[in-house]
Amino acid sequence: MKLVYKILLAVVVPAAIISVFFIYFIYNLLYNEVEQRFLLNLENSTENYATLINVRLSNVAELVNYTAKKIEKLPNPGISEINDMIIGNVEYDSLVYGSAIFFDSAFLGDLRKSFQYAYRVDSEIKTVELNNNNSKYKQYFSKKQDWLTIPKSTKKGIWTSPYFDEGMSNTLMITYSTPFFVGGKFAGVTTVDVQLVDLKKLLLINEKEIEGEYDPDLYIINTTDSLFIYTEREDIVGNFIYNAASNPKYSKANSISILDSVLMMKTGSGIVKDLSNHETFFAFYAPVTCASWMAVNIISASKTESYVNASIYTIILYMSLFIAVIVALIYFTSKIITKPISSLSDLTVAISRGNYTKEINIKRNDEIGTLANNFNHMINEVEKRESALQQSNISLEKANIKLQNLDNAKNDFLQLISHEIRTPLNGIVGSTYFLDEMIVDPELKDFVDMLKESVDRLDHFSKMALNITQLQTMGDKLQFSPIVVIDVIKNVIDELHEEVSNKKLSVIIENNSTNKILGDNESLQKSFYEIVKNGIEHSKENEKINVNLSDDGDKVVVAFTNKGDTIDPTKIDEINEPFILGKNHYDKSTGLGLAYVQLCLNIHKAKMKIDSNE
Prior knowledge:
The chain has 15 helices and 17 strands. By secondary structure, it is an alpha+beta fold. It is elongated.
């Protein structure tokens, strides 16, 4: 099976299994959360409806109250002044249909028992004086009119229950009426009329903004007599539960059974059941305080479940699409990586059969491209080496001198290889191990071992070089945090336990420090790692490495002591420079360890001192 498919199986199969359980878990986890958010949105929309109505009606009521105060300040107002007031009231707010000022018989001015009214007719505002002699307006002088009798008796402004106006507008309306007084005595009322059809328009205009994607049934109810101001139910006459010919009272004959339960609720929300079909509903209500109304939103539990499931399914769909995109990215990324590796694998098979004529053709500017180029170079060098060996074997019987010359040439060639191929790459490791198993010749074995050792050295070199580069470029952006130095040192010694045991060393720690330092834990740990490792490598067996910690003001002094070969005093200042240790010899040291330590200490504004004594 190809590597790309193994990668996909290793990722996709576990991801699919995990996804199934994850989706199941997410569904159960999200359901209650989404349902609660959904119901909270409905509760908020109910309050928003109530607030909208309350604000608009309060503005209208304030307009009427202001007019009443103006009248009280006029000793004997005339018709023109009264008309200006009521026309101004109608013009003030688009929700206002008409405005009236009625002077009671107790008023002693010129307008006693007069009734002035202004109202909208299309885009115009007309005024009319209502009188008891005209049968069309006779109802307005009835003692049963709430807009007159209630303010007169309570001396307070009120919003009336809905009524059908058969005089001027012939439509359903509500009226806000407030009394005015002259000399401390009741003198009349000033009113503003709002058609319920305009209130309906106000609610419908704001419906999308308030409800959003949800669609509950909205009812506006007068709590004093259970009369319906507005409902979205189209099966109720004209969006209202009554008309001019019907009984306006909420009764069994015209009731909606689910609202029987809602009207008995004592809290802002709850679960109710329709007594007619036993279906469960969620009901929310909020008071319209200025008019003793109640805004009610009702939605069935089944509809709620549909909304919640749709929301969760959408989330799951997006998650599934995200996982699919990730799998596709893994597949194509794997192809980019595994295709050249497959080519390298095929090439190594050909080499094992003695075919050195093939080359890998990968034109890339990344590490894999560099690996391919060096692999081709290695094939050419190995082919040359094998060709030279074959020629030397053919010439072996002819002359010992030629054999010696060839042997010298071989040694020279090996020396050239060992010095020239110093840049092995990460991917060549697999090929060198394969060659190690295939080649029997001892001399070639040395070559392969040297190649593997170069890879190890290059790996350490690249890591240290990368660490130094990172410190040089990102050192000023390190996030410092409080660090207990002894904890870092103990972690390093635990990490180097095997090296300590191999040389039978004893590490003795004496901690006299209580300070914490501000620094980057990762870079400091790498620095202490290089220092301790250096001490282990240069200590004799069965010796001790002493670590002493002490405080110097707000600083921490860490002293490492070991016994080993002394260092030439003239070379101590060069130890911290990169590549100094590896300049004149070949070993596993890259000469970067102490350079990294010095750079890290510079960033932390710390110092390192090295002494070497007999």
